[in-house]
């Protein structure tokens, strides 16, 4: 299984930009971009909670467990 | 704030270490030039040894070479310390490389303690080698200096190990958003 970040989908649905959300939750735009592309080792509960609050969603909307792709 | 302080202090200590690296060989050369390694000076500088017959040129040369070896180990330690301060001054604080440099400095100090103990014994033999048979001396001892080198070297090694773990965790933390 692998975890897929659906932040870009939620941002599009809420019509929000990464820059605005990053500023609102207090992380850098670069880090939010890394998170969107799934190039991070993990996400802190604190960041997840802020994202859920700002985007009015649940953790399950942002993250999805999917069978690992074979290459 | 703490990082800034580490960087600023390291910059100054790095400069001091660089000066010391230059000063140590200069001190040996100064000693050579001012007669600190003449036979009389060596006899006067080792009052605990019973030097009946003054040592020959070979023994004196050996004595000086051992001093040079000790100096080389000392410079190796200073070099590692300088590299560490350089890395800290550049902001590379919790990195694996800095932790390994600290470990090398600690290892160097432990080696310096061991070399000091052996060197003192060998130098004693060299200075009393010209004595009649039965009056040559082999004295092995540990002074305060060696004990401090051992303790400080051991401490640096242990802190280095701890910092390797800290660097690993810091690296992992950087991957979290």
From TrEMBL, chain A:
**Residue span(s) of domain HTH cro/C1-type:** 10-62
Among CDD domains, the record links this protein to: HTH_XRE
SUPFAM superfamilies with a match to the protein in the record: lambda repressor-like DNA-binding domains (SSF47413)
List the Pfam families hit by this protein, alphabetically: HTH_26
Query: Which PROSITE patterns does this UniProt record tie to the protein?
Result: HTH_CROC1
Q: Which GO terms describe its molecular function?
A: DNA binding
Under InterPro entries, the record lists: Cro/C1-type_HTH, Lambda_DNA-bd_dom_sf
- PANTHER family, from UniProt? DNA-BINDING PROTEIN (PTHR37301:SF1), DNA-BINDING PROTEIN-RELATED (PTHR37301)
Name by which UniProt lists this protein: Transcriptional regulator, XRE family
Organism of origin: Jannaschia pohangensis
Automatic annotation (TrEMBL), chain B:
Keyword vocabulary terms for this entry: Membrane, Transmembrane, Transmembrane helix
TM regions (residue ranges):
12-37, 57-79, 108-127, 147-164
Origin superkingdom = Bacteria
| Protein name according to UniProt | DUF2975 domain-containing protein
Instruction: Write down the species.
Output: Jannaschia pohangensis
């Amino acid at each position: 299984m692998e975890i897929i970040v659906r932040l870009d989908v939620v941002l599009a649905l809420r019509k929000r930009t990464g820059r605005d959300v990053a500023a609102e939750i207090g992380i850098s735009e670069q880090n939010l971009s890394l998170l969107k592309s799934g190039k991070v080792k993990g996400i802190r509960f604190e960041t997840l909670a802020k994202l859920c609050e700002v985007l009015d969603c649940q953790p399950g909307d942002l993250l999805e467990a999917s069978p690992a792709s074979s290459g | 704030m703490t990082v800034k302080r580490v960087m600023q202090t390291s910059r100054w200590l790095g400069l001091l270490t660089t000066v010391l690296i230059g000063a140590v060989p200069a001190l040996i050369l100064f000693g050579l030039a001012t007669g600190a390694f003449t036979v009389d000076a060596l006899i006067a500088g080792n009052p605990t040894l019973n030097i009946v017959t003054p040592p020959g040129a070979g023994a004196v040369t050996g004595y000086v070479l051992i001093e040079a070896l000790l100096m080389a180990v000392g410079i190796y330690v200073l070099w590692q310390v300088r590299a560490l301060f350089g890395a800290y001054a550049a902001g590379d604080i919790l990195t694996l490389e800095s932790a390994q440099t600290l470990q090398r400095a600690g290892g160097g100090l432990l080696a310096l303690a061991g070399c000091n103990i052996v060197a003192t014994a060998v130098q004693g033999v060299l200075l009393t080698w010209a004595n009649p048979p039965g009056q040559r001396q082999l004295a092995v001892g540990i002074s305060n200096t060696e004990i401090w080198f051992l303790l400080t070297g051991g401490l640096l090694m242990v802190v280095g190990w701890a910092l390797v773990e800290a660097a690993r965790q810091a690296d992992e933390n950087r991957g979290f958003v």
